[in-house]
Amino acid sequence: MKFIIDHIFIVSIVVLSGGALLWPALQPRGKRASSLQVTQLINRGKTVLVDVRTAEEFALGHLRDAKNIPLADLSSRIAELDKAKSKTVIVVCQTGARADKAIKILEGAGFTDVFSLDGGQTAWQAAGLPIAK
C-alpha cells in the first residue's frame, strides 16, 4: 500500500494504459466470422452476401455474388433484402468497421442470423481467397 501511495503517478499511468488497451475488447460488436467460417457458410448455401462499401470500392473487387448496398443507403434499400430474412446474411466492408454498423441496422429490421466478415475485404484478400471484379 505504501508503494502505491508513494508512486501514485506511475500507478495511475499503468491503470489508465491498461484500461485503454482493454477498451476495444469491451466494446459491443456484432457477430463476426473469420474468412474460413464465411467460406464454410457460403459453401453450405442459404447465404446472402451484402457489401456495404461504396460503388467505387465495390468495383475494385468484391466477394463473388455479393450484393452492393452502400452503408449510407442501407436503411432506405433494406426492402431489397426482405427475402433473405430466413437466410444467413454476411456483411462485408473494407476492414469490418462499417459492417458492425450495418449489422445493427439489419438486426433492427428483423434479421436474426447476421455476421460480419472479420477484417473485411482486406482480410479476405490477405487470406488469398478469390474476388470478382
Automatic annotation (TrEMBL):
Official protein name in the record: Rhodanese-like domain-containing protein
Coiled-coil zones: none
CDD domains in the record: RHOD (cd00158)
Organism this protein belongs to: Massilia rubra
SMART domains, A to Z: RHOD
InterPro entries tied to this protein: GlpE_sulfurtransferase, Rhodanese-like_dom, Rhodanese-like_dom_sf
Domain Rhodanese: 43-133
Pfam families recorded: Rhodanese (PF00581)
Transmembrane feature ranges: 7-26
Keyword Lipid metabolism: no
Keywords: Membrane, Transmembrane, Transmembrane helix
